[in-house]
Amino acid sequence: MQKKQQEKDTQSTTQNVMATILQSIPKEAKVSKIDYEGPRIALYTKSPLYLMEHNEIISDLVNVIKKRIVVRTEESIRKPEDEARQVIAKALPKEAELQGAFFDTTTGEVSIEVKRPWLLYNNPSFNSPQLTESMGWRIRVRKATTVPSSTIQAINYNLKVSASDRAKHLKQIGESIFRPRLAQKSEVSLLTLGGFGQVGRSSMILTTPESKILIDCGINPGARSPMEAFPRLDWANVTLDEIDAIVIGHAHLDHTGFLPVLCKYGYKGPIYCTEPTLPMMNLIQLDAVKVAAAQGRAALYAERDVKQIMKQAITIPYGTVTDISPDIKLVFSNAGHILGSATCHFHIGNGDHNFVYTGDIKFGKSILFESASWNYPRVETLLIESTYGAKEDIQPTRQEVESAFINAVNNALVDGGKVLIPIPAVGRAQEIMMVIDHYMKAGQMMEAPVFMEGMISEATAIHEAYPEYLARELRQKILETDDNPFDSEYFTNIEHSDAREEPLREGTPCIILATSGMLEGGPVLEYFKNIAPGSKNKIIFVSYQVNGTLGRRVLDGAKQVSLLGKDGKVEVVNINCSMIKLDGFSGHSDYNQLLSFIHKLRPKLRRVLVNHGERRKCENLAMTVRRMFRVPAHYPQVQEAVRLF
């Protein structure tokens, strides 16, 4: 009975919204259909030019109904793809160099990839609204990458073949989001499933009487038992069908590594992330499957489960207010950590409570990214990371760390040694690439071949594909000039394991960037076995080493470690090389930056929660916040329920 009443109320609400829209749209707009498209309301028109030239109509409507609206072209006016390609090719200046076009039949959009997008900006001969009107596809201009991204191509293919299912899925999501609220009173709680008092398996559930939102779903790469490795969803006593949405802050495995498992076992709901997070997440998750196979372990999930994420993902740009349930709105903002990383601002009820989850945050500008955003309109509860939450966790200045990096590399290369940099493929790799290229070109770093292995090349292509998420100067270079900082003569990508002979050849000084950053698997282990015994060689750690990982043991001074070889036999590796850890390249805020971020927030916070750090660091940061800002601060542990409102 209750379900029937709920369906009746939903239908009534939908009819009211649609009626309001129809009354406000002029006949000239030729709107033929209005439908839900996930968290948006889509208006299908036979005259897209009219609505594109009269933006104020849509803006006024959004202000009235308080919902996101997108304009879509009626399917009947869309030209066949071959004809549309010809129209695009004729309209584009040849100098722009069209590289490809992807037609998304679910949204009626065509993404055109061009080598020189700046030639289309403010170009009177390239009239996007007129082109849309003539071929029935809305145009989106993208920067073509130097090397095509196989990950983005695979995602586009899967979106194409699942277009019909996606359309149905998005409609169902919309009906679920825009249903009437069942309870008017807001009660907000946070269930901690992982990543509290520890680094790894970040996961939590935000609950209200209306909604259950799973935020992040990671694994702990250094754990030795399943109970410590995966989020404690069993403790939360929540079925997959009860989860209204999953929100992903960024792509690293300690935040997304368990997500394919949920899809494997039947999660069918929406997965919200930023646009670049989807391919980055896809790349990292598939690599984990390959690493498991190479080590003779059974993977937690299969490739098909990762593909399923593509079909359920809904990407949201920074700064866009999006309904994700009847009583929760979400806004992503730049977190400065890796490409597409986001702080998550949850607006709950009718202004009842505002909860911000920073995820991994960098409150300081880097070569790749702007400093994390901090100007939220309101925050009552802040959940902040504490990877570097101890008083002694003060990172050197950018100038100091780059100088130390140059000296460390030069000292090894001059002696005829090799430099191994175990590195996460996403973020740190691209940062180090740009530093190396800059200083070699400037003559301050000894020129030597730079070999890259693992998925670094593919991750770099994804960075190129989304320049709007990069730092302003870098974005301008990529979008407005032919000077591509990611494309350098010094870099050589190792495509196959057979090609490793060159960087490992005796007496050949070189720099090797290889994944993974914590020596927990991947191509880096083959290089580690060869480089660690040589006294002239050097290992440079530029990312955080989680407790329990091989990288942490090596960094802490182990002189001998045991590794499992390809044949299943244990190999003993003697460590005679020198090593250095450089913190200044980290994508995490140091102690001072974390406090500066909290200090910036206005109006004053009501509560601060601390996670994503070793227990003593969480404790220290919480204690400092209480003392400095006179705000209640707490560092929950895993399997706690925290009442927010």
Describe the 3D structure.
The chain has 645 residues and is of the alpha/beta class. The chain folds into 4 domains: 30-77, GMP Synthetase, Chain A, domain 3; 80-144, K homology (KH) domain (GMP Synthetase, Chain A, domain 3), CATH 3.30.300; 155-172 and 186-392 and 588-643, Ribonuclease Z/Hydroxyacylglutathione hydrolase-like (Metallo-beta-lactamase, Chain A, 4-Layer Sandwich); 398-581, Rossmann fold (3-Layer(aba) Sandwich). 35% of the residues lie in helices and 21% in strands. It is built from 22 helices and 28 strands. It has a 7-stranded mixed sheet with strand order 12-11-10-9-8-7-28. Strands 13-14-15-16-17-26-27 form a 7-stranded mixed sheet, covered by helices on one side. It has a 6-stranded parallel sheet with strand order 20-19-21-18-22-25, sandwiched between helices. β7 and β8 form a beta hairpin. α12 (277-294) packs antiparallel against α13. The longest helix is centred in the N-terminal third of the chain and has 23 residues, at 2-24. The chain starts with a helix and ends with a strand.
